[in-house]
Design brief:
Elongation Factor Tu (Ef-tu), domain 3; Rossmann fold; alpha+beta; globular; 6-stranded mixed β-sheet; 3 domains; single chain
Length: 519
Amino acid sequence: MSTQPAMKKAKVKGETAPPPAAKPAAPPVRKSAAETIAEVAPELSGMLRLLTCGSVDDGKSTLIGRLLWDATDLYDDQRETLQRGKKVDGGNPDFSLLMDGLVAEREQGITIDIAWRYFDTAHRRFVVIDSPGHEQYTRNMASGASHADVAIMLIDARHGIKKQTRRHAAILDLVGVKRVILAVNKMDLAGWSEETFRAIEADFRTLSWKFGFWEAIAIPVAAVSGDNVAARSTKMPWYKGPTLLQHLEELPSRGTEATGPFRFPVQTVLRDVRNDFRALAGTVSSGSIRVGETITDALSRKSARVKRIATMDRDLEEAHQGQAVAIELDIDLDIARGAVISRADAKPIVARSLETRLVWLNETAYDPRGAYLLRTATDLIPVSSLEIRALLDLETLATSPASACNVNDIAIAHIALGRGAAVDTFADAPETGSFMLVDAITGASIAGGIVTDVSAEAQKAGENVFLLTRAILERGLCADIKDKPDAEPEIRRRANEVALILRAAGVAVEIESPPDYSI
């Protein structure tokens, strides 16, 4: 039977009709962290890449695990697993298990490899790079630091700043991380002592001044109990600064603005013959470029105008630092992978010798007779000679003359290149001012460093250096292409391959550079 009334209720005089039933409100749209930041503080938009570093057992993994526990929406099963697992000081879960992913790490209670974790808070998205603290794994820490916007250096409040802390600070300076947080951990085991914290803070201030960090702050924390991690501690009323999370949410990302001169290391050349399309593909490492502006190839010194800037889904009028694009020119230049494109009025130097600072990463000590190659963003260049000139003393932070270098040493070195390469100083353009040294025979990573000064003058070739000339190439390896109009890039490529093979065989080699271009 129908439950509807047979007739509508009569309207009483003077009575107003009831308002129509309101539609149920739509559920609120949850904004992402990036959208929230873009509205509240546009200068902070983008992810913050966060490195944790410190000595063994200082509590890096526990600190980040506690941050994940307190400030993020962990899955219920993750919380239940930790709550059912072993307990640590004060009956708290072992938060380090949220970061230590390798079986060996869980068994030994240390971080061996770099662990990456992504998480959102109410205001921001973070990428955590948890690096190992043991001196044996310094190379992993250096690799992680090269990706970071800000670093958290952890120390044990009972022990203060150690030699490894100074080494990590030097590496952070080396790779350009200029915002550093000193998390003075295990304050509970130091009796929540303000005197202890202030003494460590003063040492850290001196350390920060020597390395020229832009922004450095010390925060007293107890990672296991969460004091001053995401919530303010009641045990340390004398500390009036921000919690760790508050400070992180206020920091800008490194490299979010198009700063420095325009640099575009070419990754590859894209061709589409049917559509008459040829473009240079890569990522803008610094600065910006617009359609219609003139660019120059540093090595060949040839120029052209930007005809088009293409991406996977649309064309752009302007490309900025950090964007991966394909740049089409109005005329075809003899450009291949390894070239660095710039504006004509701000070109990188075609360097033949470099003054550098580097960290030695290989277990094999420096050998002046060793065969090394220098790898930049997109190029691989034979090294004619590598000379260690000084080492950084991690106790005094002063440099002293030296001619030898071992694993984890931080050195000042002179590098002579076998041919010209487009290189900047790190201060001017970090991406094109940093490098890796690799073993010419095995390809193993030897050292990572930055360029402090460049010179276009080639070092005078020694008696035992083989000079690879254009005449030699044209008589032999390049005889089949020497007369072709587009032979130059292929001749340069073949010359470089020959030089790399000779260097791997232990032969010091120089590639002759004609005055009109650099091979």
